Structures are given as C-alpha cells and as structure tokens.
Amino acid sequence: MKKVLLLSMPFSSVRYPSAALSLLKSLLGREGVSCDVGYLNIFFQAYTGLPDVYEAIADLIMVGEWVFSDELFNEKWAQSDRRRIEALEAPLLPTRFRGKGFNEMMGDLRTMAGSFLKECMDKIKWENYHVIGFTSVFSQHVSSLALARRIKERWPEKIIAFGGANCEEEMGRALLRLFPFVDWVFNGEADLSLPQAILQWYAGKPPEGIPGVAYRHDGKIIEQDSGRSPEMDTLPYPDFDDYFMALKKWAPAYLQSVPVSLEFSRGCWWGKKSQCTFCGLNCKTLNFRRKSPRRAEDEIKTLTARYKVDKVILTDSIIDMSFFKTLLPALADWGGLEELFLEARANLNREQVRILRSAGVKSFQPGIESLDSEILKLMHKGTTLLQNVQFLKWAREFGVLPTWNLLYGFPGENAEAYQRMALLVPSIVHLCPPMDVSPVLLVRFSPLFEQSREWGLKNVKAHAGYRSFYPFDQEDLNALAHFFDYDLIKKENVPSYINPLKQQVAIWKESWKHPEPPFLTLDRQSGGKVVIYDSRSLGQSHRVELEGEMAKVYLSCDSIQPFDALVKQIDKKEVKNSSNDDQLRHHLDELIAQRLMLQEDAHYLSLAMRPERKMEVSEEW
User: Fold this and answer.
1) Is 34:27 a contact under the CB 8 Å cutoff?
2) pTM for the whole structure
C-alpha cells in the first residue's frame, strides 16, 4: 500500500501539534490516501535531554537553523569561518541568551544533530512511504533539508515535498533550484493541491496542472502559481493521533498541559483594510475566510473530547469579530475549556474582554506593539495609545494576560514618541508589561519590504544570520531569506532615544516579579465617593478619595470619553455652559496631574481598575 509520511522537524515547539500536518492527514485520508505524521521535533527534544534549551531555541527566530547546518552541507563548510554562531546574536538573540554558556549549549546540540539524523534514518521504516513531505516554518528549514538529502540519496525514487511559510513564492523557487533532492514545493495553501498531486502521481503522472505545486520535469522547474483556497466549512477535522502518540513515547510530561491547535479562519480582515507595515503573514492571501460559528463550536467540542484535553490554541492571524456574539458566548455557556489562546486587536470594548475571559481565554496576543499614537499610525495599526492602555486595564481586571512587545526602529519614527512612552511607563506599571522592547524586523511580504524604497530603506539583503548556516552567495541568500537587513537612507541615533524607554520597561518588568504586582484600583463607596488605592511607586502606597463631580468624572472615564460627552454626562444639559466647562477641565487636569488619568487630544481615560474581586488593602489605609 502506498503511504505518505509528513514530518515536523526541529525546531518546532513541542508544546503544541502542527495544525497544518494534522489537517493534511485528514484531507489525504478523505481521498483514501494513508498518511502518518512524524513529530521528529519531539524525538529530537528527547534525544538531546535538554527540553528547556530546546524550547527556548524554538521560540527564537532562525537560531535553530544553525544547529543542523553542518549536517546539510559538506565538511568544507563545517570548517568555514562564516558558520560562527556570533553572526546570530544581533538582533535575533535576546541579551539573556548571549554569551559563552549559550554558545556552548548550541555547540552541544550541533554535535548531536548528526547522530540524531542517523537514528531517524535507521529507525523509521522508510520503505513503507513513497512520498515524504516536510512542513517548514521559520527554524525548520535546515533540519528538514538535512534529513531530506539523506532520504533521497538512499531512495532516489521517493518523492520529497516541502511546504509552509519558508516555501512561499521566491523562497520556494530557490528551494527547488538550490536543493536538487527536493522534488515538489507547495506554494500557498496545500489543502487541495497536496491530495491532487499525490493522487496524480499514484496514477503515474507529474503534478501538472495543479495550482500551487512547483516541480522539476526534464531538468526544468515548472511553476504553477499558488494553491487555491477551499471553503473553510468543507475541511475535515484535523487528526492529532500522531502528536499524542509521540508525546506519550518521547515527552510524556507534556501530556497534561498541551492544547490542540485549531484554525477557524485564514487571512486577515484588518490587513485587507490596512496591512500593518511590519507584518508579512498571510503572504498574498489577505482575503479573510472563516468557518461558521456552529462548525467551530462543534470542532472544539469534538476534538477536546477525543483527545481528553481542555486547552485550545487558535492559529488564526486574527479572530473573526462576529465570534464575540456567537462562538465565544457559546463556549462560555458550555464551560468545557480551561484555556483558549487566540489573537485579536487591542481595540476591544470592556464587554468583549469579559467574554474572552468567560470563554476560557487566560492569555492572548493583542498586537499592541506601541504605546504612542504617532508610532501606531506609522505602523498602520488602526489603534491609539488610549485604546491600548484601556485594553491593558480591562485585561488585568478580568485576569487575562496579554503577550505583547514594544517595537522600535521604524523608518521615519519620531524620537520624541519614545520619550513620551518613557514618561508614560510609571503611570501604567500596574498593567501587564511587554515581554520585550525589540527592533522591528524586516520581513518578506510586509509593506516595509515590498515598498522598501518608499520607506527610505537601501541595501536590503538577507539577514546576516543566514550566512552562518547557508554557504551560498548573497543573491541566493536573498532568495531563500524570510528576514532581511537594511540601511536607512536617513540615519538616526536610535540608542539615544530608545535606551531610556528600555530602562523604564526593565523597571516595569521587575516590579511584576514581586508576589503582588503594583496596583491602582478603585472602590465605589456610599454617597458617590470613590477611593483609589495606589501602589505604583516602588515601596510606597497611598489612597486618594474623590467625591462629587470628581468622582463622577472619574467613573465616566472607565472607557475613553471625549470632552463633549463628559460635559453632557456631568451637566445633564444640552446647553453649553462655559463656566461649567472650565470647572470640568480643572477636575480633569487635576486627575491627570495625579497620574490617575490619561489625556490624548480631547479624550480621557481613567487608569484605576475595577477588579472583579476586591483587592485586599493595607490597614494603614
């Protein structure tokens, strides 16, 4: 019986299954094609005996590629000065990873790579498989190629196929051109093209006429555009059997904590309107498509029951906003999820944040990226400073942990914006801090890349890190690369304005390592009084009492309020009264001076939280 083997190689994380391979297995099964999924990433993590080191590398960009480079290329490359690990350091390695200790660990992993690949070659029953497919996303490319070369050398008749983010457009063409042991490369979505290509090959024909499959024929590379998109509701449920079997065999400690990876939409509805300047996700397929709410709900319930898990991670680039009225309330009513992870924009209202939490969302990625409206506009984020802070406030209220970063280094950015952010941080240390302050990476398919000249970029070329694991010339590196270096036509002294912000964020993050992070909470008392408890200043705590109009104004600004709306709420009159306006402005200015409120243009936001559970307060208050 002809079978297909789909492989997930290092350095894909062990913490969740491959949504793509699990779905492709089901799609092939629907066509009568027997398929196994091999999680050799899990095998390698176990083989190294260094699970924490493995997962740390899996969370980094490109770094893991270096480990398998010697095994892909010849001995001459292994002796080359170009393959020094130091080329990966900036900006790919966070500071905590740099230094002798990390380099030694990477060297240890590199020495294990060859024996690991030999184990794979010796122990997998390759004779059972006629097509071997590799998914390649970020740091899986070199390890996949190293194993693929060995398979092809031993069994030239087997078909070696590649797909995934590293195979899109020019990268896929370069893959076929530079690595002759690769037979097929799938560009774009492979849901339709992979089963068609395999069935056609079983019938003795090349994958001619199938959109999305590039292949070699009579020594020439045949390209066929990108894969066609299926109707989302017609897709079968993904099959995660192989993942859970691999965990049970090689990493049983993960069994109690892993989620299933599900996909309910493709594309990006916001990117279709205004693609974020730095985002290269979705390649050419920004068109947003989704599964129906009922289908999504059934998929979650069926698969969590089948695999006895209560955690789900959605791989969608962005959640469909209609799910806040359909899927998420249904999941909340069901109550079967311990944890749901997803991505959404930060301009959610309070009720939407509450719905997220009630549906099982404990952490999620809101795409904040900056705390300055000028920079957010430069990014084309479509959000403002106040919206981002408002979201962070409500996230802490409802116990949702946002995972986010502050980005810098955008062409044309205003240094004063980062000074404003540095001054802002002490006022918002009671809100969840960013994971890091990072330079923006130039990513293929992003507007920054596609319109690099318009953005003032010159000398755009493959990131220097690629030189440490590929022995190719610059032109070929440029074709393979997903990340790029560049020079600015107009140079800026970035450290001079970013370092003060980094220092403030470091203090912010340190304050969240304490048993109880800083807080700024309010308590509504009888008679309309509002008491605010404030521990944002390190080692100091105090309370502020607001009464009358001040209290009313403060409560009104729990969500962002324009000044005119506040006038009507406070005055209860449609006729404008300039003296009342002056008094209101005075109250607002006083609240801003006490760092209890933020103002941007004529809009105001209160910073104190309304916790779901009343926070214990020191007796001295």
Assistant:
1) no
2) 0.93
